[in-house]
Write a structure and sequence with these properties.
Aminopeptidase; 8-stranded mixed sheet; alpha+beta; disordered N terminus; 235 residues
Length: 235
């Protein structure tokens, strides 16, 4: 069970914040693990109870190279995953159009392929370029929903992306029904959203109206500088 992320030098505000989050999970009877294997993530996600193959741009449909990908597992008392999310760090240089360029050529998700169509979205290229972190593929076991576990997993992923990959922005896609959760401080804690439209989803073949949610690394560091006060809903 992972108690805190490895610390190579002095303990930072992010280290302390992550430790406080993990302690809150432990106090609620849960554990947490960071897993780097993309194939294991795919095998678990597609067999999980309630897995949604139309989840916006699910990493299950992506080419996920080792080293830039990880997934967060929230564990029950028997060390079984009951909530997960996946994340990857990627380079979006400004001279290639930044995030907007990656969306146009589909490289945010995988190498260009016929099964993936990039969504049309207005993105401020000057503000979203360089190293980015993409978070998606969230799932919670039905009996553990409404406890805030997926929000914990997403926020842990954001911290890990800043600490170990030095991202400039964290981004993701959500449906409208999940927009409030994505922007809530005790949810996914993204700072803003842009409307998007996906010509069709790889999971179903039908169009998707989505929101691109985003959060700067500076905002993540500001959260780490604040005094952490985490508690699980219903715990």
């Amino acid at each position: 069970m992972l108690k805190s992320w490895p610390v190579r030098h002095r303990q930072t505000d992010i280290d302390r914040h992550i430790a406080a989050m993990v302690q809150a999970l432990n106090a609620g009877g849960f554990g947490v693990r960071l897993h780097p294997d993309a194939m294991e993530y795919r095998r678990f996600a597609v067999s999980a109870d309630g897995h949604d193959p139309a989840s916006p741009l699910d990493p299950c449909f992506a080419d996920l190279p080792r080293g830039s990908f990880f997934w967060i597992q929230v564990l029950d008392g028997q060390s079984r995953p009951v909530a997960i999310c996946a994340a990857r760090a990627l380079q979006a240089p400004r001279w290639r159009g930044g995030l907007a360029g990656m969306l146009r050529n589909q490289s945010l998700f995988s190498r260009p392929a016929e099964t993936l169509i990039a969504p049309m979205v207005e993105v401020p290229e000057a503000n979203m370029s360089g190293c980015l972190g993409y978070i998606g593929g969230g799932w919670t076991q039905p009996e553990y929903r409404r406890k805030g576990l997926i929000g914990f997993a997403v926020r842990l992923a954001q911290m890990h992306l800043v600490k170990h990959h030095r991202i400039r922005h964290a981004v993701g896609f959500v449906r409208e029904k999940h927009l409030d959760l994505a922007l809530a401080a005790d949810g996914y804690a993204f700072a803003g959203a842009l409307q998007a439209f996906m010509p069709y989803c790889a999971g179903t073949g039908f169009p998707e109206r989505l929101y691109l949610v985003h959060l700067s690394a500076d905002r993540i560091r500001q959260r780490a500088n604040a005094v952490p006060n985490y508690s699980l809903k219903g715990a």
